[in-house]
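User: Can you predict the 3D structure for this chain?
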Amino acid sequence: MSLKKKSVIRDWVESIIVAFLLAMVVRAFFFQAFRIPTGSMRMTLIEGDLILVNKFIYGARVPFSKYYLPAVANPKRGDVVVFVYPEDKKKDFIKRLVGLPGEKIEIIGGSIYVNGKLLNDPVFNKIYYYNRGDFALEGKAIVVPENSYFVLGDNSASSKDSRFWGFVPKDNLLGKALIIYWPPQRARLIK
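Assistant: Here is the predicted structure, written as structure tokens:
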């Protein structure tokens, strides 16, 4: 094999390695693609949607460590968040953030009350929330623990969410859903 041919092969291998390493850094700290597997977030997200998640906004975790990069913003009510499912660390879930640390959450007549006041926000007002599960019993308010969040699916009738399994620890947050990029006819920002 000629020296020139070896040089071309070496250039290709180096380019592939650099591209791979760059892709891993971007995926670990900045953005990650996810596919929506269920209808728990209908009509915001439907089965098969491919979304891009901003991982650095809440402070991305440094792989293979317990350390995090500094957060750009704190999670806020209404954010569509991706997180490690508290009951199975191998699964990632996506839901809408409803309750912040220290808040008292209650579902009354299909509406959400935060600290005894009706949550008056168009994102939440168009959804009827069912009193299902141990953490959403009718007539019983729950308090979100420190460093945790209460999340609900937009399709309340068929969403396994905080009403059933409780709270999402802050350390489980992976990021905020930004855009639907596939299929093209559904491409848009996620609100």
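The chain has three helices and twelve strands. The first helix runs from residue 3 to 29.
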